[in-house]
């Protein structure tokens, strides 16, 4: 059914979160916000929009193509805008834009934007149908078309990443974090919050990249984030990151999150997967050449091949014009 309009003319489901960047949000360099923290902001805003539209609890199913194009300094104002741009039978596709401004200037500009997919869940824990959303403007129609155009390529990316995760141990050592999901990680459904899981992914990927690089590293991309199953509080969580491909100035890292009951610590199931890209920053703040990853074993070659395939698949996806990020709200 068509969306009703609020008093200010915005479609239902639109929401803006606004806050100041705190020192605790910063990465190890102290020059920009942690990528994982930005992903948490994106997920929270997207969740609020999806729940507002569907009228029910929602779970994060997918987050794609988050480009960290510029630093976000401590003390700046952040606005996380979120609104519905497409609906399936049980899914809500939400466009999220992160904008920042200096405290004194209040002139906001887009830092990053992406599309998230949520699934509405009923009280019995099964997916439930959602009201259908219809576009109201040319900008709405363009973003909806781009969201629809990404559905099939996203399936191909997911299949490639699952195949990648099936490749055995390679010569580059993995970075593995292992811990229990604590009560402080819980969402409104009693499981680990999707944004928290993405922060775990970023932290582990960061450690992996930092172990390979000589200079400080910073995330420039996170994508293909698929959530397959929830992580109950109290479960063992294992986050494994491995370097699978390098270019002249970037490191491509595959991250897989697995979880299981503490009583069966060796029976962990895949819950989430992601690709992160990091660059090494020199003294000037620009990306510098990185050490090349040697392809020594058949597993190295297979992982590198999958990474190249993912680059091609991402390049073929329909991009969301940056200008729409500031006009769709």
From TrEMBL:
CDD domains: BFIT_BACH. Gene3D superfamilies: Hotdog Thioesterase (3.10.129.10). GO terms for biological process: acyl-CoA metabolic process. One of its GO terms (cellular component) is cytosol. Pfam families: 4HBT. It comes from the Bacteria. GO terms for molecular function: long-chain fatty acyl-CoA hydrolase activity. PROSITE patterns: HOTDOG_ACOT (PS51770). Residues 11-124, 171-284 form the HotDog ACOT-type domain. Keywords: Hydrolase. InterPro entries: Cytosol_ACT, HOTDOG_ACOT, HotDog_dom_sf, Thioestr_dom. Belongs to the acyl coenzyme A hydrolase family. This is Acyl-CoA thioesterase. It comes from Leifsonia shinshuensis. The lineage of its organism: Bacteria, Bacillati, Actinomycetota, Actinomycetes, Micrococcales.
């Amino acid at each position: 059914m068509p969306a009703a309009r609020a008093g200010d003319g915005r479609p239902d489901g639109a929401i803006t979160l606004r806050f100041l960047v705190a020192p605790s949000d910063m990465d190890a360099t102290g020059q920009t916000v942690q990528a994982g923290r930005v992903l948490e902001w994106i997920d929270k805003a997207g969740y609020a929009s999806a729940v507002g539209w569907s009228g029910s609890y929602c779970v994060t199913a997918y987050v794609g193509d988050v480009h960290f194009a510029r630093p976000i300094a401590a003390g700046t104002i952040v606005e996380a805008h979120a609104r519905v741009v497409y609906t399936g039978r049980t899914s809500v596709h939400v466009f999220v834009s992160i904008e920042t401004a200096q405290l004194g200037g209040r002139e906001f500009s887009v830092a990053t934007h992406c599309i998230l997919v949520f699934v509405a869940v009923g009280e019995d824990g099964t997916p439930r149908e959602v009201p259908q959303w219809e576009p109201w403007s040319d900008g709405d129609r363009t973003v909806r078309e781009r969201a629809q155009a990404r559905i099939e390529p996203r399936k191909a990316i997911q299949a490639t990443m699952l195949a990648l995760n099936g490749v055995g141990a390679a010569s580059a050592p993995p970075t593995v974090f292992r811990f229990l999901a604590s009560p402080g990680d819980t969402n409104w459904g009693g499981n680990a919050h999707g944004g928290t899981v993405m922060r775990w992914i970023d932290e582990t990927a960061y450690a992996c990249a930092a172990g390979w690089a000589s200079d400080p590293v910073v995330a420039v991309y996170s994508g293909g984030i698929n959530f397959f199953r929830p992580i109950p509080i109290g479960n063992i969580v294992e986050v494994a990151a491995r370097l699978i491909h390098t270019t002249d100035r970037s490191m491509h890292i595959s991250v897989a999150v697995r979880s299981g009951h503490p009583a069966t610590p060796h029976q962990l199931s895949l819950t989430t997967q992601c690709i992160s890209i990091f660059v090494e920053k020199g003294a000037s703040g620009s990306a510098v050449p990185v050490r090349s990853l040697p392809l020594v074993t058949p597993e190295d070659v297979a992982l590198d091949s999958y990474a190249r395939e993912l680059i091609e698949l991402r390049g073929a996806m329909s991009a969301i014009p940056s200008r729409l990020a500031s006009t769709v709200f």
